[in-house]
Design goal:
By secondary structure, the chain is mainly α. The protein contains 16 helices and 2 strands. About 65% of the residues lie in helices and about 0% in strands.
Length: about 300
């Protein structure tokens, strides 16, 4: 059964139950996620014994705010639209991702999922060599891409086809405001001679990004270029802790099949759809083991 046929098979009652929005589930999840970040950052700032070992978990919690940004972009985390918008702005600022621009990018991804001609996520091909794979996993190319996007958007040079002309002015204002705030924060840090933000924000983000890269590769990589969301998108079976950290986005085929379902209802949607899924992985380690087995040692190598 394709995802279209599956959606047609859902009763109106099931669809209404699955897509109902609430503030409570999102606020509870956000409170725990943000609380973990504040707790770890405070411990590092206070220099508790062994604080360097907290940098990595802090970074992982921070970079996985990407999934919060992703979900509030769909405006499904909270029933309150302003709350979705403001949480998107805060999460986007932390991650260097302009939220309005990301909204257009991400909706184009949903509209053209895994279409080589139109899906913006496919503009940068996934690595096929060991050097490229390891470089990709560092996350450094991603940071470079985000900084370039911010700068180009702020300079009024956004040329992304998925951004409508009517939104270009707002896209530019958004990027300029973000860049100005970053500049003010940097200036105050230098003026005060404080490296605190480096230790609780910059370095943890850099350390945590490889884990987000490992996670995100499993969503669509090596899936078929077809319109069926149960075939072009992969659901990865994993631990409850990772599902929690990623706001249930390991149920990714289900999310693409019906994006209006809020994160806390994706397990229920999975229960209904699981027998129809075509692309699944038994875990992230298993996915990467299979993927890595097909990598070549170097560009042009036949090995």
């Amino acid at each position: 059964m394709t995802h279209q046929a599956f959606l047609q098979s859902l009763s109106p009652a099931d669809r209404a139950r699955l897509t109902a929005l609430t503030n409570g589930a999102g606020l509870m999840h956000l409170g725990l996620h943000a609380g973990a970040i504040v707790l770890l950052a405070t411990a590092i700032a206070l220099g508790v014994p062994g604080w360097p070992f907290l940098l990595l978990p802090l970074g992982i919690f921070q970079v996985f705010l990407f999934h919060l940004l992703h979900e509030v972009t769909h405006e499904t985390v909270f029933a309150s639209k302003p709350l979705n918008i403001w949480v998107a702005r805060i999460a986007g600022f932390i991650l260097l991702i302009p939220p309005l621009w990301f909204r257009y990018f991400h909706f184009a991804h949903h509209k053209h999922t895994h279409d080589p001609q139109h899906d913006p996520e496919l503009a940068t091909p996934k690595p096929r060599t060991w050097p490229g794979y390891l470089w990709y996993l560092t996350g450094l190319p991603m940071w470079g891409s985000l900084l370039k996007t911010l700068w180009n958007n702020g300079a009024g040079k956004c040329v992304d086809a998925y951004v409508p002309t009517s939104a270009l002015t707002r896209i530019a204002k958004e990027a300029r405001l973000m860049l100005q705030i970053y500049a003010v924060i940097l200036a105050f840090s230098l003026l005060l001679g404080s490296a605190l933000l480096f230790w609780i924000w910059v370095l943890p983000l850099v350390l945590g990004q490889p884990f987000l890269r490992l996670y995100l590769m499993a969503e669509h990589t090596d899936c078929a270029h077809v319109p069926d969301m149960f075939t072009n998108t992969r659901t990865t079976f994993t631990t409850r802790a990772i599902r929690w950290l990623a706001w249930n986005m390991p149920y990714h085929a289900e999310h693409h099949a019906l994006p209006s379902v809020p994160f806390h209802q994706l397990p229920a949607l999975h229960d209904l759809a699981q027998s129809h899924l075509r692309e699944t992985a038994p875990g992230y380690a298993a996915f990467h083991a299979t993927y890595a087995a097909r990598l070549t040692p170097a560009p042009g190598s036949k090995g």
